[in-house]
Amino acid sequence: xYAIGVVGDRYPSACIVNTLTxxxxxxxxxxxxxxxxxxxxxxxxxxxxxxxxxxSEDTSGTVVGALGFNSGRETNKLKNVGHKVLREGVPVLxxxxxxxxxxxxxxxxxTRTHTIFIAEVIAGSDEYKGTPMTYSYYHNTIKGRASENAxxxxxxxEDNYSLSEKYTCKICGYTYNNNNNKPFDQLEDxxxxxxxxxxxxxFVKN
Length: 206
Ligand SMILES: Cc1cc2nc3c(=O)[nH]c(=O)nc-3n(C[C@H](O)[C@H](O)[C@H](O)COP(=O)(O)O)c2cc1C
Hints:
The protein is mainly beta. The protein has helices at residues 39-47, 61-68, 135-140, and strands at 2-6, 13-17, 20-24, 29-35, 49-55, 83-85, 91-93, 97-110, 114-124, 166-169, 175-177, 203-205.
């Protein structure tokens, strides 16, 4: 899982992706799939440059919530997310990331809904620490899911959950399991979704 940082019209911005892959090791080249509607896509086309912050397993769910379920077109998504802005105007996250690198776009391909950007790595952090958060870890351990613009988004099969009492956040898909926790209806009124900070009202019983 990665945060893609871009130069923004008003503020530097970033979004969450899980579809980034190595293309070649020398020169260091990557491919990234980004929805055509996203602000991040628009800013990459405009400036030809972006950063990649490699999320670690320690990255808080609220960072994924802030960057993966809102658009930088409407809000300053990095307002409450620790970051620094590189000389090129591109932000990289500060907390709980394994490393970061800076990429310059060298090519692109349009599919029906997403752009596949090809880019070369032109700079990066000196150190590497922690364990990278895989999509599987996010999905199975944090119990989060991809937002609708993510290439991996799939409509959930409600029957998967019919045997036990669970509550799902309508905003980010986080599932609260009554069996392993305090019953949902006994949670405090100000309890918030651990992934996207939505209130209890945003949860529906499965
Ligand atoms: C776990 C996760 C994975 C995601 N992966 C991708 C991805 O690979 N490509 C993509 O275009 N959007 C992906 N998204 C969705 C974007 O992060 C989301 O649409 C974001 O709001 C776009 O913000 P922007 O308009 O500021 O660019 C993902 C979201 C989550 C939560």
